[in-house]
Design brief:
This protein has a 5-stranded antiparallel sheet, covered by helices on one side. The chain is an alpha+beta fold. The chain folds into 2 domains: 100 residues, Ribosomal protein S4/S9, N-terminal domain (Ribosomal Protein S4 Delta 41, Chain A, domain 1); 89 residues, Roll (Structural Genomics Hypothetical 15.5 Kd Protein In mrcA-pckA Intergenic Region, Chain A). The radius of gyration is 18 Å and the shape is globular. It is 40% helix and 8% strand.
Length: 209
């Protein structure tokens, strides 16, 4: 499976805002947006291009893909499933992305970034309802209980993440117990509880052409 290996800070600069792709670094003055708040590249500083409607739609889709660490083909599949589901397509799309296991691991504080959460899931360090799950795109459901496997509870990467993110915001649709290294999905998130800077309607318009 293809993986993005280039500098992640370039992605934030390209989208013109923090996507929180580098964990705690994003909250320090080392953040690329704090130091160079203009697009990457030789002409990034002087580039002044008026975006068309298509350009705005494309940028919104790219931003969503980068926040959740999803490739183009995967993202299109998510949109296809969302458009066939009951409900508002854009909202259902965001719900599906939020309910990915790697995203839930990140939201619960077991990882410092989506990328790190995906790696931890791939390596089989988490369980869902007591069973090991190593598929980052696994869709969690209301009532699911997520836990760190017994043999993984002393891993520095997990322990450090819980320590560094202690007291940080956890979405209202999730419940976490740092002491027990476990969490629970209380319900499927509503649009109001999904705190991501994305205008999903622009993504719907892009794929509806």
């Amino acid at each position: 499976m293809a993986v993005y290996h280039d500098a992640r800070c370039r992605l934030c600069r390209r989208e013109g805002g923090k996507l929180f792709l580098k964990g705690t670094r994003c909250f320090t003055d080392k953040c690329a947006i704090e130091r160079r708040a203009y697009p990457p590249g030789e002409h990034g500083k002087s580039r002044r291009v008026k975006e068309t409607n298509y350009g705005q739609q494309l940028r919104e889709k790219q931003k969503a893909r980068r926040i959740y660490g999803v490739l183009e083909r995967q993202f299109r599949q998510f949109f296809g499933r969302a458009s066939e589901s009951k409900g508002v397509t854009g909202e259902v799309l965001l719900q599906m992305l939020e309910c990915r296991l790697d995203n839930v691991i990140y939201r619960l504080g077991f990882a410092l970034s989506h990328h790190q959460a995906r790696q931890l899931v791939r390596h089989g360090h988490f369980t869902v309802n007591g069973r090991k799950v190593d598929i980052p795109s696994y869709q969690v459901k209301a009532g699911d209980e997520i836990g760190v496997r017994e043999r993984s509870r002393k891993m520095p990467v997990v322990v450090n993440s819980l320590e560094q993110r202690k007291g940080s915001w956890v979405p209202e649709w999730l419940q976490v117990s740092a002491e027990q290294m476990s969490g629970k999905v209380l319900n499927i998130p509503t649009r109001g509880s999904i705190q991501v800077p994305i205008n999903e309607q622009l993504i719907v318009e892009l794929y509806s052409k």
